Prior knowledge:
The complex is a heterotrimer of chains A (about 160), B (about 500) and C (about 325).
Chain A lengths: L1 H23 L14 H27 L17 H21 L1 H15 L4 H22 L15
Helix pairs in contact in A: 1-2, 3-4, 4-5
Chain B lengths: L2 H8 L2 H19 L5 H12 L4 H26 L11 H9 L3 H25 L1 H9 L3 H12 L2 H4 L4 H15 L2 E2 L6 E2 L13 H20 L13 H14 L1 H15 L5 H16 L11 H17 L1 H7 L5 H12 L8 H4 L1 H29 L7 H20 L3 H18 L5 H23 L11 H26 L5 H12 L1
Antiparallel strand pairs in B: 1-2
Chain C lengths: L1 E2 L7 H13 L14 E5 L6 H17 L3 E5 L6 H9 L6 E3 L21 E11 L1 E5 L7 H10 L4 E4 L6 H12 L7 E4 L4 H9 L5 E2 L3 H9 L3 E6 L14 H4 L7 E9 L4 H15 L2 H9 L4 E2 L3 H21 L5
Parallel strand pairs in C: 1-12, 2-3, 2-4, 7-8, 7-9
Antiparallel strand pairs in C: 5-11, 6-10
Helix pairs in contact in C: 1-11, 5-11
Amino acid sequence: MPLKRDLVVGAALTALAIFMIWQSQGFPRIRAMPYGPDLFPRIIAGGLILAAIGIVIEGLRNARSGAATLSTATSTPPVHYAALSFVGVAALVAGFALLLPVLGFHIAAALVVVLAVPIFGGSLLLALVMGGVVPVVLHYIFYSLMRVVLPWGLLTPIAW
Amino acid sequence: MDLFALLAVVLTPKILGTVFLCTLYGAFVGAMPGLTATMAVALLVPFTWFMDPVQAAAAIVATTTTAIFAGDISGAVLKIPGTPASAAYVEDSYRLSQSGHPRSTLYSALFASVVGGVIGVTILMFATPTLTYLSRNFSSDEAFWLAALGLSCAVLVGGPSVPRNFASLFIGLAIATVGIDVAVGHPRFTFGNVELYDGVSFIPAMIGMFALSELLRNAVGGRQSSRLRLTVEPLREALLTAARQFAALWKNVLRSATGGTFIGALPGAGADVAAWIAYAVSRRFSRKPEAYGRGHIEGVVDGGAANNAAVAGAWTPALVFGIPGDSVTAIAIGVLMMKGLTPGPDVLNTDSALVYAIFGSFLLANLMMLVTGGLVVAMATQVLRVPRAVLMPIILILAMLGGYAISGSTLAIWIILVLGLLASAMLWADIPLAPAILGIVLGRIVEDNFMVSMLKARGDLTEFFARDIAAVLGAITLTIWAILLYRALRSFIAPAKPQGSRDTTRDNTDR
Amino acid sequence: MRKPFTRFLGQSAAAGLLAVTSTAAFADTCDWTPDRAVTFVVPWGAGGGTDANSRMLAQMLEQKWEVPFNVVNRTGGNGVTGHSAISNADADGLTVGAVTVEINTMHWVGLTDMTYENISPIALIDIVPSSVLVAADSPFESLGDVLEHARENPGDLTASGTSLGGIWHLALAGMLNAEGMDPESILWIPSQGAAPAMQELIAGGVDMVTPALSEGRSLVDSGELRALAYMHDSPMEALPDVPLTADVLDSGWTLAAYITISGPEGLPDEIACAYEQAVQDITESDEWAEFKDSRGADNVFMGREELRDYMMAQDAALGETIQAIGLAE
C-alpha cells in the first residue's frame, strides 16, 4: 500500500510539473533578458519532479526493507475517510458558493447548517434549531456590526 | 524618556478607557475568522474624527496589537489562523487545545505576545536609528534574500521526510505563481478568471488548508463522536500552567522578540517572515525538535512573541518615512497625518509628543491586552465545550463566511474548497502542510523581488551581492542552503535502517 | 479651495459635449434617497488613496441619508474586478463605487472590454497629478537634467511607481514620448504600488519615482526626497514651489489620475442626480475640506455632465499614450 500510494503521489506531482511547464511555454519574455514570467514556474516544476523522484525512491526503499513508511509526518496521520460524509461536506462548500449570490446569506447559510449537523452526527431537531439561529447571529455580527457586505438574494425585499 | 514617563503620557482616564475598549474590540475582531486587523482599523477611522491626536493614535495601535494576537485564538480553537504569521504555529496550538489545554496554551501565547510587544516597543524607542538604517537600505535585493532565507525554514517546519517536505514547499510555491506576474504583467494559471489575477489570497488559502481539511477529516468521525466534548481547563489551573510554561521559556521569548522586532522593521512581509523564522529557529535549538508540529508549546511561544514584536517593529518605516509596510499602517498613517503628524526622519523631534504617545499606547495596549485578551480567551475557549455536532457546522459556516468577508467574492469559497481537498490529499499522502503554507506566503515575495532586481540589473546576477546588507544576507542564505542540502542528501542517501537508528539520523539533522 | 476643471477638456471632448447634453434628460426631481444599506465598491485595497477618499465620502453620505454605506474593497485584476462589480450591479442606486482613471486604461491594454460607457459617472471627487521625485542625494536637480541624461544615455536610468502599464508608468512614458524621446529611454521597474516604489527609491534601488505628488508629500516635506516636477498646470497648495511640467516642458505634458463616484451602467437620472447633489453638498462642507487639506490634496468637484466629457477626453489621450509606448493590445 505505501509503495502504491507513493507511486500515485509521484505521478500526480509529475503531472502538475508537466502542466506548469507546458503552460509556461506561451508566456511572453522580457526584452533583452533570457528569462521572464516562465522562470519561476519552470524552477518550481523542476522542484516538483525532484520531490516526486525522491518520494518514489523512498517508497521503493521502504518496500524493499519492509519498514513502515519512513515518514511519520508532523501532520495528522492518514485516516480512512468515510466517503459519504467527506463528499457531503465538500458538496456543502460548493453548494454554498453557488447558492450564496442567488438565495442570499440567510437561506444559503441555513441550508448549509441544517445539512451539516446530521453529517457531524447531530439530530434533526438540533439541525433545525441551529439552522434558524446561526445564520441570524452571524449575519448580525458580520453585516450589522462589522459592515461586511453579504448578499440578500431572495430576501432582498425585506433587506435592511 | 524612560518607559514609565511614556506610560505617564497615556495614563489619563480618557486614554485608558479608549485603549480598554479598543483592545476588547481588537480581540473580538481578531478572533473572528475573516475579520482582519485591517477591517477593524478601517471601521475605526470615522470614530477617530472625534478624537484628539493622542487618543486616535492610541485607539489604532491598541486595536491592531490585540487583533494580531487574537488571530492566535481562532487558530487554536477553530484551526483558522487570523494572519499568515499565526499560521506558523497553528498546528501546535490547535493540537494542544484539542488535547485539553486550550487555555494554558493561549495564555502562554498571550504572555509571550505581551512581553514580545513590550520588547518590540522598547527596541523601537531606543534603537530607532538602527532600525531606520536597516529599512533605509532595504531594496528588492535584500527583500529577496530575506524571503529566500524564510523559505529555508520549510525544512525545519515540516516532517522528517526530506522529499515530502520539498514536495509540500513546491506545491505551495506553485499555488503562489497564480496571478499576474510582476515583470511583464502576464496572467499565469488564471484560466481566464480575472479575479485570480491578484493570485490566491492567504486567508482563504489558510482556511482551506487548515480548517476545511480538518472539517473533512472530522466529518468522517460521524455519529460515534458526535457527543464528544473537549475538556477545557479551569481558569486558575490554566493561568498557573501558562505562567510556569512562560517562565521556563523566557529565553525563547527574549530571542524571538528581539529578532521579530528587527525583521518586522523591514519593509514588506516583516511579521510573517518573523514568525516563521522564530518558529524554525526555536525548533533548531530546542531539546525536543521532534515534538514540534504535534502540539508543542515552545514553538507557539516563540512564534507568538516574534509576531507581536514584529507588529511594533513594522511602525519604523511608517513613522520614519511615512511609507506604510502594510494596509493597517497605511490607514494608520492616513489618520495620524489628519491629526497633524508628519512622518519623517526627525519625527522624534518634530512630533515627539505624538510619537511618544504612540509608543506609550503600544505599551499600555500590550499591558491592557493581558486583561482583555485574557477575557476573550476565557470566553472563546468555552466554545470547545459544546458538542462536536454543534461546533463543527458552526466552524464550517464561519470558515466560508470568513473567506467571503475578505474579498466579497464567492471565488474565495471555491479557493477554500480546492485547497481543502488538496490538503486532504496531502494528508493522505503523508505530506506535511506547513511548508506549503510557507510557500504560498513567501512565493510571491521571492519571485517579485527577484524579477524586480533582475530588471534593475538588466539580468546581471552578481548585482544580488553588490549591496552591503544584500551581500551579508545572501551569504548567510547560501551557506544555510548548502548546509541544509548537504544534510538532506546525507540523510536521504544513507541507507534506511530500522526504527532506532533512524531517530539518530533525525537528531543529527535537527540539532 | 475648489477649482473648476473645465480647462482640462480637450477639443474632442468639447465636440462631444453637445451630443451628451442633448441625450441626457434633465430630471426634474433630485429627491431620491436610498431606503436601505448601500454598497460602496472600491476596486483598490484598504489603506490607499482611493480607499481613503471613498471611506470618507461613504461616511458622509451615510450621515446625510441615514442609511449605512458599506465599503467593500473588491481588488483584483489591476482594477478589473472592482470596476466590473460596479458596472454590472443593479442600477437601483444601492450599489455605487469609486471608478478611477483605470477605466480609461484597462480596455486599451486588453484587460477588459469595459469602458467609461459601461458605467454611470456621478461626480469627480479627487484629482491626483503625477510627479517626478528623486532621492535627496540624487545628482539631478531638475527635470531638464533627467531628460537630458536620458536622451544621451538611453536605458541608463530606472524609474518606478506602479505595475507595468499602470497610470504612473503612463505618466513617465507618456512624458518621454511627448518630449520626442523613446518612451523606454528610462527603464520602468514594476512595483506593487507607490509605497514600495518610494522605499526602493530611498534604498537606492531606482533613480526616480513618478507617483502622485500627494503620496510623496511627507517625504518631500521631510527632505528625504526631492520633487523635480508636478505633472500639472497649476501648483499644489501644499507644495507650491514644485515646478510644473506645463511650464517647463515644451510639450506642456500633464497627467493626473482621478477618483470618481460612479454608478452601474444605466443608472436612472433621478438617482444619479440625487447622488450628484449630495456629493456636491459634501465637497462644499468644512469637514470635507479639512479632510482634503490633511491629505495635501486640492478640493475638486465635477458634476455628471462635465465628468463624462472629462472621461471621454482622458480615454482618448491615454489611449494615444498607450499606443505610442507600445502597450496596446
